[in-house]
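Problem: given the chain below (426 residues), write out its structure.
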Amino acid sequence: MFTGRGKQLSIFIGETDSYGHQSLHGAIVEMLRRRGCGGATVTRGLAGFGASSLIHTASILRLSMDLPIVITVVDRPERIDQMIEPLRQMAPHALITVQTVEIVQSSAPLKEGLPDVKVSEVMRTEVATVGPDAPLASVVELLRDKDFTAVPVIDAGRKVIGMVSDSDLLTRGGMNVTLSLQRVSDPDFVNQLKQSLNDQNRKVSDVMTRTVVAIGPAEVLGRAARLMVEKGLKRLPVVDSDGVLVGILGRLDILKTVAAVNVSEWHPEAPADREAATVGDVMNREVPSVKESASVEDVLDLLVSSTHKRVVVIDGRRHVAGIIADSDLISRVSRESRPGLIAILVARVPIGGAAGETRKQLQKLRARSAKDLMTRDVVTVREIMPVAAALALSAEKGIKRFPVVNAAGELVGIVGRAEMLRALLG
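Solution.
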């Protein structure tokens, strides 16, 4: 639900104007829907004239097949601004106007489920891939600087024969450090890891997952999202009827689509939709949290015992003061302490159970507290926030997991993308 200052976009064209093999007004409406506009109205005029100075009328005596058409869109200012350039390209001779309006009431464009769009409209067509004979070290090199952790394995005909992910590398490939930790580790450490993988002389085909869950480009987005939720996946290869790779669909691509059609500027005073799931409905109330004065040892013990891979730092009023993820911790300590930290995080054991050399490497950290190591600018969500709005915020900010607070600002839970997407699908 969105109210407040918005913009009205109006496009003036002729009824016989075309775009490719379809009417121009139909092509524009389809483009607006695909890009996430909440709605558009096409109005057919009774009479009018344009640049040609010819008068067009719908009267019986002077019937014209080129009556004026006006397409009207009212939406958030930033979304309207994003539509201008595509419209200029589609309709270079159209009159396009934008004016500021006050929106006093609007219907929510997304209550439950996902927009009625096809996978082909959302997927990425440029796909990073590997062959079955590629060395494992090359996969690590490929994934280290990407925002994803799995790639399709294709044969010479671009048919998908498997998927290889960071979990495959960890469980079957002998890689003992996650990609997130590698991205903040010293280059020397990463080079040693890649050399170790090269020494094993193992190939992608040795570790890849051969049972591939794929989706067709004509399938609806909701079907793809359900597959991801049911199978616990973050990426789906998109294949044609012959199994040939034509694209890739990631969970973040789905969330960006949710963000495009959903109002992320939710505020607590907005009227509640009683049928919509809220963050409080799906959050985990068991939150790994520490006070600002907590020791590094306390933080590490929570990190290795929690599935959230982050610890929330709170002040005396239980307000969120900061957050510490495992990768943040590595990036904020000295080079001498990093090997010991990585060993603890990889083994997932408390400091007390670590080897003597590891404890020695962490000795210098004992004087530091959670307050010294936390990230201070933390984005939180309210427990009454609709799941769809929280997912939109997740896509906008690039945040995978949010601390959840109540009306008093107190920490009450933690919520991630997977459980929110599951709730959105119903």
